[in-house]
Backbone:
């Protein structure tokens, strides 16, 4: 039997269900009218959930639901770079995250919206999207800027629940610590503007979340006409053979909700970025020197992702693989079309290669969590100017969750061995951070 | 009991349908994560929207200051005027763990995007506060995050909404970094009788809000020592300029501050990354910037007086051999002597002295009058921050609901240095009217 359930999008997921939830799911059990008369709260209501903010329900019939959550994460980072000039130490005090998230739904959940402000970057807006239920509530069509569905699992996670706490600047990371370490080489901006379609259903106790998207292919905060004709076309499917996770647990590295039964999610995602003009296809500009038919052009950027997460009784294991390649015919490095673009030359324009990330964690019932991570990246081709180098990454961290997820204190140590043949760099990064969510 | 039953009823409802059974499961309820919220019953202007639960509270507070100003720099031969949103601030404050842990978040909407130089050095100045604070007891307070710092002049200890004048004094504008990110400690020690000693320790980026995305240079270390001989001010009056509480007995706080920014990259700490220097090998080398302050605040029966004395100095490394342009390119100081390099670096720092003294009286009719005089003097080798070196202000305020609703009218006269004066340009006059509302 196919049973539709409200898609637990990264931003809406903590929202609509508090009072009304997905009406259609319930309509499988009781009729909509019966639901309204029997289950709707009598009056407007206001509750607070530790670590998830304030939830407001207004009205009796087609009432509206709102969620407001404010997050501050303060951090301190120690960085030691060991390179040809010896060891260089540096420290940084930073606001790792300053975020106000407002999500809402109305008209029996037929319309939902999200506005997420992040004040760590130059623009205060991180997400802005409107979702409309379609196909008789069996799917959701979303237009706007939100987390793209074509990145690796941890780059689709809500940074507030990251198991390895570190700085993110308006949904991006300089070092990748938050988004899966070396996977960052193929991620860039985690938000994109575009149109998204999401659905989900059960198939023999197996929950399946498919989604597709057409986005700018140029990252986030695109407030004007995009340059170049190419969009990014992508899709993702998540299969959960042991049933669904608690809340958004499939996208939270630590088992903070403590799954009482084993849960597994396996995901595959792919994207094809037509004429990507940035190295990962997540920004606007940065690639020059490619010609097609004598006219400046860009290569198409392909990205393939496979990942999995397993959780049970506080244990969690995450595995991620990502591969970035380029495609395109008749591409040259000069306007006279004499020198063909090779993958070697392209490797200094685009991030080409593959990376994997494996990490595991355990959280005990009192909220102490311990995690380990290993990540590795391999270039597709390597020349001295290639953007992707052979690198290995090791992380060990500890978090203390207090009052649910309302307060979190984390410490992590990361060692990155960048085995670039020209310059062998070893970087040690330590992060200490504290986070509050209201 | 009624609250518990209501919570039980709601949780029962939540668990009564499948979606909730998943989203708020029994373990979540058992762990006490779901709490009913209630609005504060009473409200007085300025209280904000306060919602409480059994674990803590959250307050949303909006303030607005709208301003009309007219100015003339040539003895009223010509004038110009402006309508301005002086401040429009949203504050969110939350507390948990019996108020021992608090969070403060504040944005000021009129903040506009600024680029100190280029690229990643740009920043968004709408964010003014993002702070997590821990108070294990009444004696000790620790906080980490962004806020107006304690190691600036006493004026900065007073929020813009609680200021007795429309703007801050010229002394404050010349030397106070105001917002910075860092770790701080505040202690309150009762040292006999009604005497209180309150030390503040501060470790910050020294870059202001421009340093939120990237730190430049070393850190800024600061200490403030406040002495209150006659006990605490009434109703937090230490952080409000005028004596609205009408102190029945004299109240005084005297403070001494010293800070050193190891590796300063802006004129006085607001705009980190703006000025970067390098040695012959183009390694970053930066001056150290030291600031010392003496200040006081006195209140008694509607009268208040406040003053600050500031002195700054810098230590410029002799190894500086060039500067970084806004583009990031290194430009050597070719042909400059050591002394010329030193004076060039100093010409981008606010170096010198300044003082500000002001007083006001609040009548029982809620009308108040205030006077302010500020004086600035820049060193020979310094940024030109003291061109208007004598500044006079007079203000009339009508308080309609304390600092939460007030109307202010202010006139100012900023005298140019005598060396800069000309026949029609001796000073600048300002006339300003402002309405301040704090919801």
Residues:
């Amino acid at each position: 039997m196919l049973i539709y359930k409200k898609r637990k999008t990264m931003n809406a997921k903590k929202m609509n269900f508090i009072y009304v939830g997905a009406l259609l799911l319930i309509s499988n059990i009781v009729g909509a009218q019966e639901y309204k008369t029997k289950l709707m709260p009598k009056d407007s209501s206001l509750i607070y959930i530790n670590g998830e903010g304030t939830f407001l329900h207004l009205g009796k019939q087609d009432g509206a639901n709102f969620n407001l959550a404010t997050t501050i994460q303060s951090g301190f980072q120690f960085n030691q770079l060991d390179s040809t000039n010896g060891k260089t130490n540096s420290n940084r005090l930073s606001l790792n995250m300053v975020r106000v998230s407002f999500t809402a739904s109305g008209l029996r959940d037929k319309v939902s919206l999200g506005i997420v402000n992040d004040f760590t970057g130059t623009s205060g807006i991180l997400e802005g999207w409107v979702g409309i239920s379609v196909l008789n509530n069996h799917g959701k069509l979303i237009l706007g800027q939100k987390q793209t569905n074509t990145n690796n699992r941890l780059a689709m996670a809500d940074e507030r629940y990251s198991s390895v706490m570190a700085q993110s600047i308006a949904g991006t990371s300089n070092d990748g610590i938050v988004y899966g370490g070396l996977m960052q080489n193929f991620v860039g901006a985690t938000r994109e503007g575009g149109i998204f379609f999401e659905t989900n259903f059960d198939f023999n106790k197996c929950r399946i979340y498919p989604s597709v998207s057409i986005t700018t292919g140029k990252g986030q905060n695109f407030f004007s006409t995009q340059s170049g004709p190419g969009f990014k076309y992508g899709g993702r499917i998540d299969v959960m053979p042991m049933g669904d996770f608690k809340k958004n647990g499939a996208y939270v590295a630590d088992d903070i909700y403590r799954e009482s039964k084993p849960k597994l999610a396996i995901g595959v995602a792919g994207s094809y970025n037509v004429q990507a003009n940035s190295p990962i296809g997540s920004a606007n500009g940065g690639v020059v020197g490619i010609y097609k038919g004598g006219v400046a052009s860009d290569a198409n950027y392909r990205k393939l992702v496979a990942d999995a997460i397993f959780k049970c009784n506080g244990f969690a294991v995450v595995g991620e693989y990502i591969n970035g390649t380029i495609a395109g015919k008749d591409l040259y490095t000069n306007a006279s079309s004499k020198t063909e673009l090779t993958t070697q030359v392209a490797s200094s324009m685009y991030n080409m290669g593959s990376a994997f990330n494996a990490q595991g964690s355990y959280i005990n019932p009192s909220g102490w969590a311990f995690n380990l991570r290993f990540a590795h990246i391999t270039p597709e081709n390597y020349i001295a100017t290639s953007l992707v180098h052979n690198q290995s990454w090791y992380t060990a961290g500890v978090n203390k969750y207090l009052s649910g997820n309302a307060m979190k204190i984390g410490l992590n140590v990361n060692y990155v061995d960048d085995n670039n043949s020209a310059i062998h760099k070893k970087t040690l990064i330590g992060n200490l951070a504290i986070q509050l969510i209201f | 009991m009624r609250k518990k039953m209501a919570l039980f009823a709601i949780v029962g409802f939540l668990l009564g349908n499948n979606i909730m059974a998943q989203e708020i499961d029994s373990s979540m309820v058992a762990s006490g994560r779901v709490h009913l919220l209630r609005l504060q019953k009473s409200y007085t202007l300025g209280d904000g929207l306060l919602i409480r639960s059994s674990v803590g509270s959250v307050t949303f507070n909006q303030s607005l200051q709208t301003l009309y100003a007219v100015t003339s720099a040539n003895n009223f031969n010509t004038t110009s005027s402006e309508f301005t949103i002086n401040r429009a601030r949203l504050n969110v404050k939350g507390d948990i763990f019996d108020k021992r842990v608090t969070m403060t978040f504040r944005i000021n909407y009129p903040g506009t995007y600024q680029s100190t130089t280029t690229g990643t050095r740009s920043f968004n100045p709408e964010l003014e506060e993002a702070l997590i604070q821990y108070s294990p007891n009444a004696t000790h307070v620790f906080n980490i995050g962004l806020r107006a710092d304690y190691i600036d002049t006493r004026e900065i200890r007073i929020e813009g909404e609680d200021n007795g004048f429309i703007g801050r004094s010229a002394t404050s504008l010349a030397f106070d970094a105001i917002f910075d990110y860092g770790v701080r400690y505040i202690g309150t020690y009762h040292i006999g009788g009604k005497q209180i000693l309150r030390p503040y320790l501060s470790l910050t980026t020294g870059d202001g809000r421009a340093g939120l995305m990237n730190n430049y240079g070393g850190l800024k270390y600061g200490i403030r020592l406040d002495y209150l001989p006659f006990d605490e001010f009434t109703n937090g009056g230490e952080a409000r300029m005028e004596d609205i509480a009408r102190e029945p007995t004299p109240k005084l706080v005297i403070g001494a501050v010293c800070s050193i920014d190891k590796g300063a990259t802006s004129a006085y700490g607001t705009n980190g990354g703006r000025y970067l220097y390098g040695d012959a090998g183009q390694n970053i080398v930066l001056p150290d910037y030291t600031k010392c302050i003496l200040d006081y605040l006195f209140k008694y029966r509607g009268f208040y007086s406040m003053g600050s004395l500031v002195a700054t100095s810098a230590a410029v490394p002799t190894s500086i051999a060039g500067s970084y342009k806004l583009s990031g390119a290194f430009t050597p100081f070719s042909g400059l002597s050591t002394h010329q390099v030193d004076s060039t670096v100093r010409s981008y720092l606010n170096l010198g002295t300044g003082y500000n003294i002001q007083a006001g009286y609040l009548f029982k009719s809620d009308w108040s009058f205030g006077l302010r005089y500020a004086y600035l003097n820049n060193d020979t080798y310094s940024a030109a921050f003291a061109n208007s070196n004598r500044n006079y202000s007079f203000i009339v305020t009508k308080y309609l609901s304390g600092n939460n609703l007030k109307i202010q009218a202010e006139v100012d006269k900023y005298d140019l240095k005598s060396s800069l004066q000309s026949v029609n340009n001796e000073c600048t006059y300002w006339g300003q009217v402002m309405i301040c509302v704090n919801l």
About this structure: Chain B touches chain A through 60 residues (CB under 8 Å). Chain B is about 10% helix and 45% strand. The CA atoms of residues 180 and 208 of chain B lie 4 Å apart.
